[in-house]
Amino acid sequence: MTLATTATWTEIHRQPEIWESWAPELAARAGEIRRWIAARGIEEVWLSGAGTSAFIGDVLAAGPPPLRPDPLRPDPLRLVPVPTTDIVACPQDVLGASGRILSLQFGRSGDSSESVGLLDLLDAHRPDIDRLHVTCNADGALATRVAPGPGEARALVLPSATHDAGFAMTSSFTTMLLSAAACLGICDAAAALPRLAAGARALLPALASRPAPRPGRAVFLGSGALKGVARESALKVLELTAGRTITQWDSPLGYRHGPKSAVDGATSVYVLLHPDPGTRRYDADVADEIARQFPDIPVTTIGPGGDIAVEGTGDPRLDAALYVLPAQILSARWSQELGLPVDDPFQGRNLTRVVTGVTLYDYVPA
């Protein structure tokens, strides 16, 4: 099977079409959801998911908090990224929170063990918490589970094309992120998604034609919201190469404080240049430093004025959908070069597309 005929490659390349075609419906649905959030008096939003789905929360929460969609209460919404894996393992750290809370959960399948575990916890211990589920599977638990009340539930089911058939989350990640951004008032979907689609259409062919040396290690660095993108980028490479390419992620400034010790002569470094010019100076300095210290390894900058130019909206939370594309392309190409089946690099062993079978234990509050 050639790379171009894999589901993963197809799913990466159809993202612009998905975003653009989804934009009008999303704009309408997001308006309805924002009015519901206002009516429910929401003060705090938990951004939850597992793995890639959790990183959406890391991206969206790393910026100015959006104003609450209530003209009488214009104070910001508190966005709190808290993975389902953390809540299920340590419910005592979270479930005692006070105030009007919205649990905003992301899930490609909507059926992972932790997705169901969080629903069970809320049913049993915090039925007052409202729920918004952003998912790609109309038949999954996140799309079909009914809240017992008094908290209410809403589900935003994305176009079926986002329910990636490949092992790695690609279009599901970017489209869930952009959809949630619209629902939280971070962007106007009707304007932002077509603009991002145009940027992706220009970027994807250029990425596919770039040389892609397969490293022994790959490092992704990003500041602010792009730190979450760096984390997702590192995971994509790790997953699709079945762990044969060891990866790291960090912030550019944080990387100097010990983690940089992992760089060797077989490492490729990718630095995501922040749209903000002030922040971008720090990103560029770290890229230059690593290039001087390791003159024989590739150090690639991604962003405005970078080796891989990304010109998006200027909001890194939205532009995350573009910044992640290089890792999606690279990981698929490296997987193919390693002779792995790109759509299922583990071939059913060790890791599976949907994490299920996790033992969920009853929570007994102290």
UniProtKB/TrEMBL annotation:
Gene3D superfamilies, per the entry: Glucose-6-phosphate isomerase like protein, domain 1 (3.40.50.10490)
Record key words, sorted: Isomerase
GO biological process annotation, one example: carbohydrate derivative metabolic process
Signal peptide coordinates: none
GO molecular function, one term: isomerase activity
Ranges in coiled-coil conformation: none
Domain of life: Bacteria
Entry-linked InterPro entries: SIS_dom_sf
This protein's name: Galactosamine 6-phosphate isomerase AgaS
